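Need the bound structure for zinc ion, inputs here:
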Amino acid sequence: MSRPASTAPKCAICRRPAVAEFRPFCSKRCADVDLQRWFTGAYAVPAVEQEEVSDDED
Ligand SMILES: [Zn+2]
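Answer from helper R.:
Posting the output first, comments after.
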């Protein structure tokens, strides 16, 4: 497993190294993408997820 020589955080969207200006993202584009996801999740909450135990277990 090889890792970059940097300990800089990776962009949560595309996994590229984040840059200070857009931390924790690599670009405004990715920051916007994350923001969109956030708003989507906040305002368009889907129906309750299936919390029931799958009959695949137990
Ligand atoms: Zn990115």
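Comments: The first helix runs from residue 28 to 43. DSSP finds one helix and no strands in the chain.
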